[in-house]
## 1
Amino acid sequence: MLSPVKRGALFYLSFFLSTGSFSPFLFIYYMELGFSGRQIGLLTVFFPVITLLFTTPLSALTDRKRWRIQILQVAIAGGALFIFLLKFPRTFGMVALLLVLLAIFFSPVMSIADSLIANMATHHGMNYGGMRLWGSIGFAVSATVCGMVWQRFELTPML
């Protein structure tokens, strides 16, 4: 059984390790698929707009129903599934559909996770920032290592 501080740090580390392994490279992948600058720009807008529209209502629902952990698990699993599925479509429409679904699933993840971990930190008298720092370290390491791998082996095998 991990201590609460280790659980919080491990969540941030693993979440941002995974995010750093794909998010900096998505737009390069879209270029490799042959999408135009306009299409890539449209794909870029999905995450912030959907996050703006879905995060608050989904987070409020999870708080009201006390479904934080269950919704977080579903959101992370669904997000991972849609990231995996992004390697298959070759058309703009299918990639856009998957990105919309990915954004819907991922939109509440950080607000729910932050609230759970901040509550846990307060309850146990832990340093929230110290746990959160592991996410930043994970993202930086993952993006750097995956960038080096991509330069060596091309992007397609990474996805």
Note: The helical segments are 4-22, 26-32, 37-65, 68-85, 92-106, 109-124, 128-153.
## 2
Amino acid sequence: MRPDRIPLFPLNVVLLPGAALPLHIFEPRYRAMIKVCLEQKSEFGILLSLPKGLARMGCTARILEVLNRQDDGSMDILTIGRAPFRVLQLITEAALLEGHVEYLEDRDCKASPAMHEELVELYETCHIIAGTLPLELGWKQQILESRSEADRQARLVAYLRDLAPHLEKAASIRQRAAGQGHGLN
């Protein structure tokens, strides 16, 4: 059973379940948090830090590995996203932000096989052209907050439908530009 009170790490990133996230830990309060998480084999929560405050939904992170430790106590770690959660109450009394959280489960909703097929096809097109899927933080936060696979797929398909033609056009322009001046001395 996961604890309902967890340490929170506000960042300018959205962590999704199953996604790897390398972190450089240098602030003393977060070094202490990571030390406790390593000792207790516990998770911490990552929340998107927004200009107007914090997102109210985040994802827990489990530390997979400490990649290196510096003499000053800072360290590089590799984490993986585990469980989406909603913050019910922020606890700001101590130096380290904590929160009472509610873990979120997906609603039981079948995803469309046609939507799944289109998503895979669009992703492969974008992946081949761009190398990685450049999801903006707002889109990643929407994916995190979605509570059904069908909704996540629909959002990703809409995003990729808009993105794929732009990537294909950019690749075509790069290819034509690379041919310009070919054979000149």
Note: The two ends are 70 Å apart (CA to CA).
